Amino acid sequence: MRCASCGWPTSEAKVLSTHRTSEGWVRYRRCMCGAVAIELLTLTGEPTEEPVRIADARERVFAG
Q1: Whole domain around residue 31: which residue ranges?
Q2: Bridge-partner residues for 47, per DSSP?
Q3: Tens of pLDDT, residue by residue, the chain (64 residues)
């Protein structure tokens, strides 16, 4: 996966936190550009292809 804002690989983005949910895990990552991606990791072990949401940390507004 890549950052929707700048194209940087999300695997290199800093993990802010990971939380267990009824469907698996939710992971928050901050990209080098400042965008925050929210990933859903399901119980099947397959990550979603695209981040669930991208947040622009500079504007504090969610996109997507």
Answers
A1: 10-63
A2: 41
A3: 788 888 888 888 899 999 998 888 888 999 989 888 888 888 775 555 555 555 555 554 444 4
